Amino acid sequence: MAIRAILFDIDGTLVDSNDLHVRAWEEAFATIGAHFDRATIHAQIGKGTDMLVPTLIPDADEGLQERLGEAHGKVFKGRLMGQVKPFPGAHDLLVRVHAAGQAVVLASSASAAEVDHYLDLLGVRNLVHATTSSDDVERTKPAPDIFAAALEKVAPLAPEEVLVVGDTPYDVEAAARCRIGTVALRSGKFPDAVLRAAGALALYNDAADLLANYDRSPLKG
User: Fold this and answer.
1) CB atoms near residue 35 (< 10 Å)
2) pTM of the entire predicted model
3) C-alpha–C-alpha distance, residues 151 and 217, integer Å
């Protein structure tokens, strides 16, 4: 079946932000005297606050989750987001997908404000059919809500007509719960074994690598 829409994760997939999110979470946890090494935090990147915080602090109540999420947002948006750069080839990959007649959807666990910022950073407002963010759903990845919301925005397409491009196992798992396959990029710095174990259909180094191999990739359909 032809692939008629591509749902793109943003952080770690289209923009080089994962390490900056690690720094922001490190500072957020420090506000309550909690300390985790960066590898431990990085392993959770790709989740929203609602999923990330309980994994690292299982007894965190809703109020504490909210405070830590706000602390992370203050650091990231206030000091670090301006350092985020698009990955080479990210803009051109979306151009290629759009030119192929496939709907481009940005489906992220980031906030709506961050997604809006990245639309301009990537220069893709005229290419994007729709966006989804953590503001649109009750649960972030690896729950399926983000991609379920994205599917609604490309209705009446069936899951078999859609693919996800992401960089974390949580993208792969969330997509699978919507019966959507995922092409995974190594740019988010997750091990191949972790991405394959989650069920990734194929692995590419980054957006530029996927673009160079578009015609031989699952995106071609």
Assistant:
1) 9
2) 0.97
3) 21
